[in-house]
């Protein structure tokens, strides 16, 4: 039995001093590492008083705030399993998560308290507390008089620290179980790879219910003894105004396209920044190039997922190559296998990306068969298709389920998207497979044009004809103002497939 709390003891060891700032707010105000210890101590005492035992889940659906961050620390200190939920989930969706995870406590926004209590009673969730965006609610009221001292509950490396439900664009959402060491090993690796130190100030504008904003951004900062500026949400103007006091930004690709749309993005505005990280969705090579041109800074793109934390990263020193996600991180094995035979493929061959390492999760909550089917000789099957090039850089060409099979040929959407995106007047595109009476699936492109661009379907088709094999050419090209995206900036191809599902089969 472990004598220490694996994750928390590492955070304690890295702490710069109780008076050092941990979080500052764009509008003013700050909290120190000492505040984090005291506040999480009080809340951990409250969790225990509410009956939360080691291994119990603490489900949390609240707005981003300092106190919400402290709840994460409190849950882990109490030996519980932190389970954050996207604030966009409806009550009906929350019902599924609560019935699946059976938490000992559900922390919700004050606005839904009555419905949450009724739901909890129905599902047998023993305790409901509330927390508002301003830090008020039943949780903080109840914790007020409690002691800030709390003896961290011992937890070993393989004990669970968190469960994150995967965004699951298809099928039932699955709870990815992450151990203390999954979280700690990945954050330490990234801290060192990206050179985070006590001198760093991160602009934190991501949500904290997702692995990117919570386990990557927050854990790195805690383990570096650094500081973050906590923005409730991303705003390009605000982000630019914070850059002179910051050193780094972690964002999804949309952050960078919005920054590029802002006239304030200049070399001077970004001069104090040493690192721009992008991930969670593909960064267009064009965005990478445009950002470099405007600011002189090369965005560092990395690749990861809920189940694994981060797997690859472009180098800190060295060539950050647009359109690639860099190299496997130290301690992580990555290989590409044939989706048909499972054989390991060679350089430049496209197949299924599989990973193995201390970052790989413990399995899906209460789904042992599903978990077993996602592993292949000890490697986790990511579901992403990609390749490793001759220089060792990993390229992602799309999700396995996004692969289009048309007339028996495989078409990797990314290859077609890259060609379309390179055309003048195109902002971006998404290529999907849509049921087709003759071909099984028809390659279909959904294109966003720049303001004022007049490109037609026929012109795009003509341009692609010279570049792509005939079977890869879109059979139809649809124009839209924007691509549908989820909160993490991912294009929701399932929505596009649904929208255009009848275009080849519908007989008028
Ligand atoms: P999530 O579990 O929500 O973090 O989603 C993980 C998925 O996001 C991965 O399996 C990839 O499909 C995608 N993803 C994350 N980072 C990148 C990236 N840099 N480039 C392309 N796809 C990415």
Structural description of this entry:
By secondary structure, the chain is an alpha/beta fold. Helix content is 30%, strand content 25%. The chain has 15 helices and 25 strands. It has helices spanning 6-14, 33-49, 66-77, 91-101, 113-123, 138-143, 180-193, 212-224, 236-242, 253-261, 285-295, 368-373, 413-421, 457-465, 493-499; strands at 21-24, 30-32, 57-61, 81-84, 105-108, 127-130, 160-165, 175-179, 201-204, 227-230, 248-251, 275-278, 300-305, 309-313, 327-328, 333-337, 351-356, 375-376, 379-388, 394-399, 404-406, 409-411, 426-436, 440-449, 476-480. A nine-stranded mixed β-sheet has the order 2-1-10-9-11-12-13-14-15. Strands 16, 17, 18, 19 and 20 form a five-stranded antiparallel β-sheet that branches. It has a four-stranded parallel β-sheet with strand order 4-3-5-6, with helices on both faces. Helix 11 links the parallel strand 12 and strand 13. The chain is globular. It starts with 5 loop residues before the first helix and ends in a 9-residue tail after the last helix. 48% of the residues are buried. The mean pLDDT is 95. The structure holds adenosine monophosphate. Residues 166-167, 211, 279-282, 301, 303-306, 325, 382-384, 396, 399, 488 line the site of adenosine monophosphate.
Please count the beta strands (DSSP E, at least 2 residues each).
25
The secondary-structure class comes to alpha/beta
Low-confidence stretches: none
Instruction: Give the cofactors and ligands.
Output: adenosine monophosphate
């Amino acid at each position: 039995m472990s004598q220490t709390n694996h994750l928390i003891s590492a955070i304690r060891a890295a702490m710069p001093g109780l008076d050092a700032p941990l979080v500052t707010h764009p509008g003013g105000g700050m909290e120190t590492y000492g505040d984090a210890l005291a506040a999480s101590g009080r809340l951990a005492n409250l969790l225990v008083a509410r009956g939360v035992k080691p291994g119990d889940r603490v489900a949390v659906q609240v707005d981003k705030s300092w106190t919400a961050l402290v709840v994460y620390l409190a849950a882990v200190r109490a030996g519980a399993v932190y389970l954050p939920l996207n604030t966009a989930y409806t009550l009906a969706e929350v019902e599924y998560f609560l019935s699946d995870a059976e938490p000992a406590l559900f922390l919700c926004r004050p606005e839904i308290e009555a419905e949450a209590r009724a739901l909890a009673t129905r599902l047998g969730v023993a305790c409901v507390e509330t927390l508002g965006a301003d830090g008020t609610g039943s949780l903080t009221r109840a914790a007020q008089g409690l002691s800030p001292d709390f003896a961290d509950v011992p937890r070993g490396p393989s004990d669970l620290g968190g469960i994150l439900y995967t965004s699951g664009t298809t099928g039932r959402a699955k709870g990815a179980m992450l151990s203390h060491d999954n979280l700690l090993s990945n954050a330490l690796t990234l801290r060192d790879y990206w050179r985070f130190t006590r001198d760093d100030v991160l602009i934190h504008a991501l949500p904290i219910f997702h692995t990117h904003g919570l386990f990557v951004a927050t854990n790195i900062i805690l383990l570096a003894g650094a500081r973050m500026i906590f923005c409730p949400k991303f705003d390009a103007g605000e982000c630019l105004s914070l850059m002179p006091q910051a050193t780094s930004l972690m964002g999804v690709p949309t952050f960078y396209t919005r920054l590029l749309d802002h006239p304030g993005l200049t070399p001077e505005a970004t001069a104090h920044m040493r690192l721009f990280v992008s991930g969670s969705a593909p960064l267009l090579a064009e965005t990478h190039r445009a950002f470099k041109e405007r600011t002189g800074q090369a965005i560092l793109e990395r690749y990861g997922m809920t189940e694994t934390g981060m797997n690859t990263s472009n180098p800190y020193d060295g060539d950050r190559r647009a359109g690639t996600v860099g190299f496997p991180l130290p301690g992580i094995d990555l290989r590409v296998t044939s989706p048909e035979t499972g054989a390991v493929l060679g350089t430049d061959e496209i197949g299924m990306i599989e990973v193995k390492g201390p970052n790989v999760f413990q399995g899906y909550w209460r789904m042992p068969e599903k978990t077993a089917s996602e592993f292949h000789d000890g490697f986790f099957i990511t579901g992403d298709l990609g390749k490793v090039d001759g220089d060792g850089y990993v390229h992602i060409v799309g999700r396995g389920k996004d692969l289009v099979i048309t007339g028996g040929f495989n078409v990797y959407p990314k290859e077609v998207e890259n060609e379309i995106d390179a055309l003048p007047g195109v902002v971006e595109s998404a290529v999907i497979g849509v049921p087709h009476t003759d071909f099984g699936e028809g390659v279909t492109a959904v294109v966003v044009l720049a303001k004022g661009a007049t490109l037609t379907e026929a012109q795009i088709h003509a341009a692609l004809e010279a570049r792509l094999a005939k079977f890869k050419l879109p059979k139809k090209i649809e124009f839209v103002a924007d691509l549908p995206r989820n909160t993490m900036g991912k294009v929701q191809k399932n929505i596009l497939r649904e929208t255009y599902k009848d275009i080849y089969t519908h007989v008028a």
